[in-house]
Amino acid sequence: MSPRSVARRLPAIISLLVSGASFATAACECGYVSSADSGSSALFTDLLETDFLHLEDLSTNTDWAAQKFNLEKADARGKYGEKFTPDNLVTNAISDSTKFTGEGEDGGDPGLILTVSNGLEEGMVPSAEISSDRLDMFYGTYRAGMKLTDVDGTCAAFFWYFNDTQEIDMEFLSTEFNYDNDTYPVNLVLQSREAAADGYDAAGTNDFAKVDLPFNPTTDFHEYRLDFITDRVVFYADGQALATMNGSAVPTSAGHLMLSHWSNGNPLWSGGPPETDAPISVSYVKAYFNSSNTQRQSDWENRCTDINAVNATCNIPDVTADNNDAATFFFTQQENMTVNQTVSGQDSASHRSVAPLTYVIASSVLYVSGCLFGVW
Ligand SMILES: *[C@@H]1O[C@H](CO)[C@@H](O)[C@H](O)[C@H]1NC(C)=O
Ligand SMILES: *[C@@H]1O[C@H](CO)[C@@H](O)[C@H](O)[C@H]1NC(C)=O
Ligand SMILES: *[C@@H]1O[C@H](CO)[C@@H](O)[C@H](O)[C@H]1NC(C)=O
Ligand SMILES: *[C@@H]1O[C@H](CO)[C@@H](O)[C@H](O)[C@H]1NC(C)=O
Ligand SMILES: *[C@@H]1O[C@H](CO)[C@@H](O)[C@H](O)[C@H]1NC(C)=O
Ligand SMILES: *[C@@H]1O[C@H](CO)[C@@H](O)[C@H](O)[C@H]1NC(C)=O
Ligand SMILES: *[C@@H]1O[C@H](CO)[C@@H](O)[C@H](O)[C@H]1NC(C)=O
């Protein structure tokens, strides 16, 4: 909790002390609250946070799975296939855990690097993708810090996915970035290529928007965010709302989070393949959400004995254009702010509710989503 919000609560805390009101046994046990400043305020019971700037080895992080599969040319609907390989996922940690800027240990941008390689392998473009282990992510505020590539011809995507008609994508086509007139669009999509292939013109609906970012996304890390709350989805860049979508394509199920970076040479979408290796860097993912898992729901009910108790809920600090401090704040790096949460690297009874094998099968079926809109 920021000093400012603590100060704001001080009178309430004092009166609670006087009246002998209850205290939470551990902070945030009733959940995490997104502020009303950037959309409507909502409470979320669960979290997933990954500090990729300080992650040395992706395989040790139980919240994420590196994706490995081939998409042949016909299925990729481009000039070439796509080869998603863990070889194109490289961690480049900052050795000093207290520093959040500067080069990674291998030099260059720090974080998790997702590369689209120059050159084909068996007719496919080497690409990269990770998927969250958890599949129970329902309403939530989903945030990723990323620095995008200035190499022409790739599609970078941060997306939430359930199936081809229930997905929320932020898709960045490097070929659309225009350095001459300083225009950097992001494609915001609430629907699938299947729906589009059926003649549904998303561009004319409330389910698609191409919006210019308020900055050049290739020169620095920025926060990309999608809030999925009951009847609507709001997209943000550095805390600034880009678009709100509230049509019938707003998902109604729980899903999972993915980050991907690929190319298939389709001139109408990804363009490319890139003429040099094209890296994007992910500094963090922070997800605060309600779980669809009944065990997680009853865990919340059991630990949240008094939602009005002092510190029972915690405010999620927001990254804004003027304030990047929130980017380096993680509840999971504080003492006692994630009690009874599933946190990578910490023992917990309910971790990995989905067996890895099932997950691999599910994810290779489910992956076909981010960025494929408009590709045929
Ligand atoms: C954290 O909370 C637990 C109760 O959930 C308590 O036993 C423990 O002392 C707390 N630790 C700190 C450092 O506050
Ligand atoms: C999330 O779940 C909690 C507990 O059930 C509930 O109070 C809250 O309103 C839910 N949030 C949203 C956005 O529905
Ligand atoms: C996605 O899931 C929803 C809800 O279960 C279902 O109605 C819809 O038909 C599914 N879409 C696809 C493409 O399977
Ligand atoms: C910048 O140039 C591109 C390509 O010509 C064009 O599509 C876009 O509308 C321009 N943007 C602005 C703000 O002028
Ligand atoms: C979507 O939001 C707009 C603007 O607030 C509102 O006019 C419209 O009725 C909403 N549509 C639905 C389906 O809720
Ligand atoms: C509430 O949490 C803040 C931040 O962790 C802490 O400084 C404060 O002491 C807590 N208040 C109470 C009453 O536990
Ligand atoms: C949360 O607490 C409940 C009750 O003690 C326990 O059964 C459950 O395994 C815990 N879950 C996590 C993720 O720690």
TrEMBL record:
Which GO-annotated molecular functions does the record name? hydrolase activity, hydrolyzing O-glycosyl compounds
Q: Which residues form the GH16 domain?
A: 38-293
* Cleaved signal peptide residues: 1-26
Q: Which Gene3D superfamilies match?
A: 2.60.120.200
Keywords from the UniProt entry: Hydrolase, Signal
Report the Pfam families cross-referenced here.
Answer: Glyco_hydro_16
* Domain of life, per lineage: Eukaryota
InterPro entries assigned: Beta-glucanase-like (IPR000757), ConA-like_dom_sf (IPR013320)
Under the heading CDD domains, the entry gives:
Glyco_hydrolase_16
Q: Is rRNA-binding among this UniProt entry's keywords?
A: no
Q: Which GO terms describe its biological process?
A: carbohydrate metabolic process
Q: What is this protein called?
A: Glycoside hydrolase family 16 protein
